[in-house]
TrEMBL record:
<dbReference type="InterPro" id="IPR015421">
    <property type="entry name" value="PyrdxlP-dep_Trfase_major"/>
</dbReference>
<dbReference type="GO" id="GO:0006545">
    <property type="term" value="P:glycine biosynthetic process"/>
</dbReference>
<dbReference type="GO" id="GO:0005829">
    <property type="term" value="C:cytosol"/>
</dbReference>
<dbReference type="InterPro" id="IPR001597">
    <property type="entry name" value="ArAA_b-elim_lyase/Thr_aldolase"/>
</dbReference>
<comment type="similarity">
    <text>Belongs to the threonine aldolase family.</text>
</comment>
<dbReference type="InterPro" id="IPR015422">
    <property type="entry name" value="PyrdxlP-dep_Trfase_small"/>
</dbReference>
<dbReference type="InterPro" id="IPR015424">
    <property type="entry name" value="PyrdxlP-dep_Trfase"/>
</dbReference>
<feature type="domain" description="Aromatic amino acid beta-eliminating lyase/threonine aldolase">
    <location>
        <begin position="7"/>
        <end position="294"/>
    </location>
</feature>
<comment type="pathway">
    <text>Amino-acid degradation; L-threonine degradation via aldolase pathway; acetaldehyde and glycine from L-threonine: step 1/1.</text>
</comment>
<protein>
    <recommendedName>
        <fullName>low-specificity L-threonine aldolase</fullName>
        <ecNumber>4.1.2.48</ecNumber>
    </recommendedName>
</protein>
<dbReference type="GO" id="GO:0006567">
    <property type="term" value="P:L-threonine catabolic process"/>
</dbReference>
<keyword id="KW-0456">Lyase</keyword>
<dbReference type="GO" id="GO:0008732">
    <property type="term" value="F:L-allo-threonine aldolase activity"/>
</dbReference>
<dbReference type="Pfam" id="PF01212">
    <property type="entry name" value="Beta_elim_lyase"/>
</dbReference>
<comment type="function">
    <text>Threonine aldolase involved in threonine degradation to glycine. May play a role in the removal of L-allo-threonine.</text>
</comment>
<keyword id="KW-0663">Pyridoxal phosphate</keyword>
<dbReference type="InterPro" id="IPR023603">
    <property type="entry name" value="Low_specificity_L-TA-like"/>
</dbReference>
Length: 369
């Protein structure tokens, strides 16, 4: 039994590295609400440069980053944003764009590869002739990588096409880039090129690249000015925020280059799972750091499997009634991957054996009766 916990529930579970902790302790800070925190200013300027945009703004969470971005673009209540039906904004962010911004979601089906069909996006754009009856379409949102579709990458060609649709119809394009660096690493495309067509991007810091907290919004100077006001409105302003930005600086510097290795380990996991007959795994679908596998044996449920794995210090996430998700991050070693596969094999055996014993005892009790 390993003494350490192999935590594969999410790439958000990473602990700050020693370098991050040292940077936080040594950070040069002032009051960021007054606009004078030097570490925050430096980090935001660097993130704007990396992403190829004019300006950037640190915010406490990805949910707030997306919410602010949507509300800046849809600044009139009754606006409409086109979203994928499996997108994080639509599924996991508590309907904030509607609750707080009066923005109506216009849902388009995500394909298994994370895209939305271009013709369906065009069809979802409201005609100006129907403004008496319909909300006004102002925004298209993409997600890269697309988490609910298995961490799929949206290509630069596809993103550019959606950007052209947005421009043609006078709309804005926002990219939820919670794992945008993963997409860049997997596609071999510089991150600034990957988001060139976007008017705004929310860049996750606390997922794949392992910072302890936060996201960055990037866009034009005018966009970030409005975003700064909304951040204050939503309670997202932090005084000496440079302490957090210092850790994020280290994450960007030290961890982005490790993402390709995370993807390699995810493929090793998927390959090992493929060899276990009680599961089905689509190896081709594992493009980045997320691995989804389905139960092919009715005796094994995702919840039960995760429960038995936890007893072996391996943590995983059950997804619905038939799937489990594993998320690889830079604090997962090759040894952890092999240990996880060994524990999953043992857990399957334990569940099946226990089920057989229970069936035997039940049948015996019935016979005696």
């Amino acid at each position: 039994m390993a003494t350490k916990v192999v935590d594969l529930r999410s790439d958000t579970v990473t602990k700050p590295s020693e370098a991050m902790r040292a940077a936080m302790a040594a950070a040069d800070v002032e009051d960021d609400i007054l606009g004078s925190d030097p570490t925050a200013r430096r980090f935001e300027a660097e993130m704007a440069r990396i992403m190829g945009k004019e300006a950037a703004l640190f915010v406490p969470s990805g949910t707030m980053a997306n919410l602010i971005s949507v509300l800046v673009h849809c600044d009139t209540r009754g606006s409409e944003a086109i979203l994928g039906d499996n997108s994080h904004i639509h599924v996991y962010e508590h309907g904030g764009i509607s609750t707080l911004g009066g923005v109506h979601p216009r849902i388009v089906a995500n394909n298994p590869d994370g895209t939305m069909d271009i013709d369906k996006i065009v069809a979802a754009i409201r005609s100006r002739d129907g403004s008496l009856y319909y909300p006004t379409t102002r925004l298209i949102c993409l997600e890269n990588t697309q988490g609910n579709c298995g961490g799929k990458c949206l290509s630069v060609e596809y993103t550019d096409k959606v950007g052209e649709v947005a421009k043609t119809h006078g709309l804005k394009l926002h990219i939820d880039g919670a794992r945008i660096f993963n997409a860049s690493a997997a596609l071999g495309v510089p991150v600034d090129r990957l988001v060139r067509a976007a008017d705004s991007v929310s860049v996750g810091l606390a997922k794949g690249i392992g910072a302890p907290i936060g996201s960055v919004i990037v866009g034009s100077k005018a966009f970030i000015h409005k975003a700064t006001i909304l951040r204050k409105t939503l309670g997202g302003g932090i005084r000496q925020v440079g302490i957090l930005c210092a850790a994020a600086e280290v994450a960007v510097r030290d961890t982005v280059g490790k993402l390709a290795d995370d993807h390699r380990k995810a493929k090793v996991l998927a390959d090992g799972l493929k060899k276990i007959e009680q599961f089905t795994v689509d190896l081709a679908s594992v493009e980045t750091n997320l691995v989804f596998f389905d139960m092919a044996d009715a005796r094994i449920s995702p919840a039960k499997l995760c429960q038995v794995l936890e007893q072996r210090n391996v943590l995983a996430t059950p997804i619905g009634s038939k799937s489990v998700r594993l998320a690889v991050h830079y604090q997962i070693s090759d040894g952890d991957v092999q240990y996880t596969l060994k524990c999953i094999e043992e857990a399957v055996e334990e569940i099946i054996t226990g089920d057989a014993k229970l069936e035997h005892l039940t049948n015996g009790a019935t016979t005696n009766s």
